[in-house]
Amino acid sequence: MALFNWAAPLFGRFGDRWSPKSISEIAGWLRPSLSPPCPAGCRVLDVGGGTGALATKLAAELGTRITVLDPSPRMLRYIPDRAPVDAVVGTADAMPFPDDSFDALIVTDAFHHFRDQAGAVSEFSRVVKTGGIVVVVELDPRGLMQIIVSAEKLLGEPGAFFRPSQMCAFMGERGIEGTCQKMRGSSYRFTGHVSEPVLAAPEVADVADSLEPA
User: Fold this and answer.
1) pTM metric for this prediction
2) CATH label, 2-12+19-195, candidates 3.30.9.10, 3.40.50.150, 3.40.190.10, 3.60.40.10
3) Residue-wise pLDDT tens digits, 151-166
């Protein structure tokens, strides 16, 4: 996190890389979870959303409020005051939200920074409603991307990148079934739905233990 606290001014000034076309595309990925209109207003969570550059534009495109969760308070300070965006300090593996708080969730180029990725995915399943959409945009670490992987680790970041097949398996094992699709350049997108939780079978007491003495 120290890296992002230090680099927050740079992200605040130069981190907006979202074109109208890309915003429209991302909105299309999330919209199935937001239509028909949510009874109490739809809620979208942007995990690791930093300065809110994506969330601010996405909220306008979708017509709903978006919550940005990020561990760096300095990054969150760059979210415009009048934007329909709620800034929350926190980590992906211990989110300060009740169960079923959101209709959809998105992570863009941040998943490899999470130090507890299994914990993060468990939190995705907890805070997103059953059937809600989870989108993760990541970089495929193969080929020339191995240089970036090594550089991130030198800077003290986890650099825990997944190949597309690994991401799909990792998510599916934790209750978010979906598919991975290649995007432009080295990026790919995982799109999945939160599955119905599997209830454990009730324990059956031993018959001998249940018998009362005569």
Assistant:
1) 0.80
2) 3.40.50.150
3) 655 555 556 889 999 9
